Each structure stands twice: as structure tokens, then as C-alpha cells.
Amino acid sequence: MSTRVSSNDAGGPAPDAPATPGPTRAAPGIPGTPAAPPKMSRESVTIIVTLLVATFVVILNETIMNVALQRLMVDLNIDAPTVQWLSTGFMLTMAVVIPTTGFILQRLSTRAVFMLAMGLFSGGTLLAALAPGFEVLLLARIVQAGGTAIMLPLLMTTILTLVPLERRGAVMGNVSIAISVAPALGPTVSGLILQNFSWRFMFVFVLPIALAALAIGAKYLTNIGETEKTRLDVLSVVLTVPAFGGIVYGLSQIGGGQAGSRTPAVLALAVGVVALAAFVLRQLKLQKGGGPLLDLRAFTFRMFTVSVLLLVVAMIALFGAVILLPLYLQEIRGLKSLETGLVLLPGGLAMGLLGPFIGRVFDKVGPLPLTVTGSVMMVLSLWQFSMLDAGSPVGWIIALHVTLSLGLALLFTPAFTTGLNPLPPHLYSHGSAIMSTLQQVAGAAGTALLVSIYAFVSAAEGMVAGMQAAFLTAAVIAVAAVVLSTMMRKTVGAAQPASH
């Protein structure tokens, strides 16, 4: 199966994707007037809504744990390095599983993949709620992560398969509700639960929603597209563990460890880089024979490559802010977990709720005006964050976080849609997996870099100076997003003027 894209900067078609601009449809009875975008069937809407709810649940679960680590140290009688494995183990599992989702989505039916993802997630959640100690809780988090890793690529691939090109921006905008609002609610929900109940209720709260999504999917979800009997390359799967696991683990430990304890992290990072090179060479070899675990031919589409680079830069800045801002609010301002969650809530809600509107605008005007505006807002807000001190008004902090969140919203929907639109159907799952994988790596890299700068400067000049230096570094990195944003062009997913 192949897809045709316009032969300009919009898509940069691969050699096997001939360039033919699509015709402009006219509205019935009105010659020369573009037709309204085709409507989606009720079945398609049901499938996408089911996947959106499931994605919201798994992302919410991913974020509620961060606030609970201090409480778990006391209740489970474990130290900080040990409890951190509840987050590190989750992140490592995600990094290893996501690269395999391209194969999983091609090999299994939509219904089977959904049941696998939500079955793993629900089972892990139940196990976590009943965990008698740390070891079982860690196992439960790893099982949860296996299901979580599959959901977002499944959602993206399903949207690309079901949604007409003219409506993809609007639907991708709805995805931002799950991706943005869930992390925004996570700290607040976690804070409320921990203030009134045991930590187990974090999982008890999520479990009924997960089971409901699983039941709805089991009843209403239908298969879309066609499965392919591709062969699983075992060597590629083996290489993903040291490659993506080593890189993410090394980066996360470099960012969180003390100077004297970083040798194992550096070694893990080095092993990860070598294994990644071997993984890439293996995929390039398999592409000639037709069975790569992760098909890298998606990078032959120019807009996919530019969009991926833009998302990587944005994720470095975003993850840095996600880590640094709570540190500032709790360590420097002395806010409690629930108060910190409430300060961050407006930005996350604004980012998610504005997503559908941004998606509709994207379908009309394309990515360029949105991504340039968003990247400039991101740079300015991070620059202003670098000027915060111990006495900065909380209202100003909320305003800056809302500005940053809106800037990121203007980036994410256009970047996802522009990058994935020109891909032919057989690369949908691989393109989604590549984007999700690199977001994980970029998040770990951003956290490692900015937390290391914060720790280094704080040791010499104090926490406020460390925070300012880290945010300033994030602002400088974000300048690259402005440059990349100017390269964005309409792909066939954006509505083209009638004159084209």
C-alpha cells in the first residue's frame, strides 16, 4: 500500500512515493467551491473515543506516581534511590517496548492490540493496589508500563487510518486533551488522594476507569486496516533493551545522581549509544529484505524528519520545565504537593482544552503560523522563568506556565499531524512508534541536562541561581524550535487553497 504526497517542501516524498497533488473537490452545486470535509462514521468515532479515554487513563496513571514517592518511602520503609525505581523502571519499560509497537500494530488486529494494552495496564494496576511490598509494586509498574507504551502509537495509527486528511488536525487536537490534561490533573489527583487515603487508592481510583475502558473496547471496538504476517526479528528486539533502555537509564541517572555515582550511568549511556548504532544498522539491512522491527524509511519524508526534530526540542524543554518547576515551587517556595499541583493545573488544562481549536485552525492554515507562534511563546516563557526568585508572585508563575503550555499546544498538534500525514499507510505504525520513542529519549535527555545544571550551579551559588541557570539553558535550547518551526510546510493533511 502506498500514499501519494505533493512534490514540494510539504512532504518530501520518498523515492517509492510518487508525487501527485491531490485534486480539489467542489461542493455540490457550487462550481469551484471546495467541498466540506467528509464526515466520519459513527463506528470510527466510537473507536477513536474509546482509544482516547484509554490513553487518558494510562497517561494519568503515569503522572500520579511522582507526587507519591516521598509517601512510599515512609510506608514501605525504603530509601530514595530504591523508591526512584518505581519511576525509572516504568520509564525503562516504556523505552524498550515502544520501538516494538510498529511490528505489534502491523502483526495484530486493532482489537487484539487494544485488549493486550489495556489488559496489561489493568492487570498491573490491580497488582499495584494489592502489592504487599516494594518488589511486587515495582513488578506491577513494569506491567503497567507495557500496556501504556502500546496505547499512544495505537491511537495515532488508528487516527491516521480512519480520519480523512481534511479532519486530521481537528482530531489530533482532541488527542491533546488526553496528552495534556491527564498530566495536569495527575499531581492534583495524587495530592488529594494522599491527603485523605492510603497510597493504594491511587491505583484503586484508576482501576475502575481502566476496566470500564477495557469493557467498552471489548464490546464496541472493531478491527481496522489489515494485518501483515511480518517476521519478528529477535536480534532487533534484543538490541532495543541495551539501546533504548541504556540511553534512557543513563540519561535519567546522570540527571539525578551525585557526581561520584555517575560512572555506571555514563557506562550505560555509552553501551546504549553503541547498541543504538547496531540497532539502526540492523534495521537498514532488514529494510532491504522487508521486515524491520522499526522501519526508518519514514525519515525519507522531509516533513516527518523536521517534525520529529521539532518535537524532540520541545520535549527537552517541556520535560525540563516539568521537573524544574515543581522543584522550584517545593524546594524554594515551600509549597506542598497538593498546592504545587494546583499551581500547575491551569496550564495543563489550557493546553488540553485549546487543542481541538488549534487542530481546526491547523486544518485551515497549515502548521507554519502556529508553530512559529508557539515556539516564540515557549522561548519567551522559559526566559522569564529564568528570572524567577524566591519572592516571585505565584500569580505570575501561573501566568508564565499557562503561556508555556499554550506555546507547546501550538507546537504539538501541528508537528504530530504534519509529520505523520505524508507517510504511506504501511509506515503509519512505524512513524508513530519513532515519534513516541524519541519523545522518551528527549525527555530523559532534557531532564538529565537541566537537572545536572541545576545541581551544579546550586552547589556553588544556591538553589535560586541553579534554577535560573537551568531555565535559561532550556530557553536557549528552545531557540532551535523557532528555527525548525520556520521550516514547517503544509502536507496533504492541511487544507489546500483552491488555487493549488
UniProtKB/TrEMBL annotation:
The keyword Kinase does not apply. Pfam families: MFS_1. Residues 47-493 form the Major facilitator superfamily (MFS) profile domain. Keywords: Cell membrane, Membrane, Transmembrane, Transmembrane helix, Transport. It comes from the Bacteria. GO terms for molecular function: transmembrane transporter activity. Residues 1-39 are annotated as: Disordered. The keyword Oxidoreductase does not apply. Signal peptide: none annotated. PROSITE patterns: MFS (PS50850). One of its GO terms (cellular component) is plasma membrane. It is found in: Cell membrane. The chain crosses the membrane at residues 45-65, 85-105, 112-130, 142-163, 175-195, 201-222, 234-252, 264-282, 303-329, 341-358, 370-388, 394-416, 437-457, 463-484. It is a multi-pass membrane protein. Residues 22-33 have a biased composition (Low complexity). InterPro entries: EmrB-like, MFS, MFS_dom, MFS_trans_sf. CDD domains: MFS_LmrB_MDR_like. PANTHER family: MAJOR FACILITATOR SUPERFAMILY MULTIDRUG TRANSPORTER MFSC. Belongs to the major facilitator superfamily. EmrB family. This is DHA2 family lincomycin resistance protein-like MFS transporter.
